[in-house]
Amino acid sequence: MRIVKEAEERRNEILDAADQLFGQKGFDGTSTNDILEKVGIARGTLYYHFKSKEDIMDALIERYNVRLLGAAQEVAADKSIPVYERIMRVVMALNISGEGSQEVMDHIHKPQNALMHQKIQKVIVRGVPPILGEIIREGIEEGLFHTPYPFEVMEMVVIYLNTIFDQDMIEMTEEGRLSRLQAFAFNIERLLGVESGSLLHLMQMFDGGNGEHHE
Questions:
Q1: Listed residue (48, 61, 54) closest to 6, CA to CA
Q2: Following DSSP, what letter does each residue of 71-104 receive, concatenated?
Q3: Which of 68, 72, 136, 177 has the fewest C-beta atoms lying within 10 Å of its C-beta?
Q4: What would be the CATH architecture of the domain defined by 1-50?
Q5: Domain coordinates of the chain in residue numbers?
Q6: How many other CB atoms are there within 10 angstroms of residue 68's CB atom?
Q7: Within this chain, domains 1-50 and 54-208 share the same CATH topology
Q8: Where do the H-state alpha helices sit in the chain?
């Protein structure tokens, strides 16, 4: 048992070092030698745990996956929160301020970490729609929403949010951003089959971006 624990600790040391180096120098600018020197291990030890630098990156992304999706799942499972608010809190957990998530987003948004960014986006687009889709199904049962496509609607929402509101993808003025938020709310209301204006206050909550509603 002790050997297994030591192996896991060493693996985490390598990941911690790589995480710091990727943040400082970028994935492309970090060599395996940099990682070896920071951890203080032999090359053979590194390759015992990871096949390549990209393998290390994939393991880091899995860490981010657990952190980001875990936060979203925790919010989604709290049925004491009304359906409308729960949807937005899930989005906020991913895109705004949840503890640790902003650090992750700042990290992957660096130009030298473009591949990490792409892979994280893939994780989000694949993992979040099912979480949100379940909340939409609850809303359908409560008579709040009227759509035969809860998963597909949420897939559209996630892809739009992670493209249009990604600062690396599209540069926009404050006026342009507010206009897109209003258009986003307008169109989501129609996709979910709810009355016009139903989501406006939620968009304002999302627009706050300071975590004051994200407990």
A1: 48
A2: HHHHHHH-TTS-HHHHHHHHHHHHHT-STTHHHH
A3: 177
A4: Orthogonal Bundle (1.10)
A5: 1-50, 54-208
A6: 23
A7: no
A8: 2-25, 32-39, 43-49, 53-77, 83-95, 101-108, 114-141, 150-164, 174-192, 200-208
The hierarchical CATH code for the domain 54-208 is 1.10.357.10
Take residue 118 and report the two structure tokens written for it: 């792409």
180 vs 165: CA distance, rounded Å: 9
pLDDT digits (tens, 9 = 90+) for 64-123: 888 878 888 999 999 999 998 888 788 777 654 334 444 455 656 665 567 777 888 888
Q: What is the pLDDT of residues 144-188, one digit of tens each?
A: 999 999 999 999 988 887 777 766 667 788 888 888 888 888 898
Contacts of the segment 103-107: beta carbons below 8 A, 24+ positions apart:
104/64, 104/67, 104/68, 107/19, 107/22, 107/23
- Can you tell me the distance from the alpha carbon of 93 to that of 23, in angstroms, rounded to the nearest whole number? 21
Contact (Cβ atoms closer than 8 angstroms) between residue 22 and residue 57: yes
The yes-or-no verdict on residue 38 having pLDDT over 80 is yes
139, amino acid identity: G
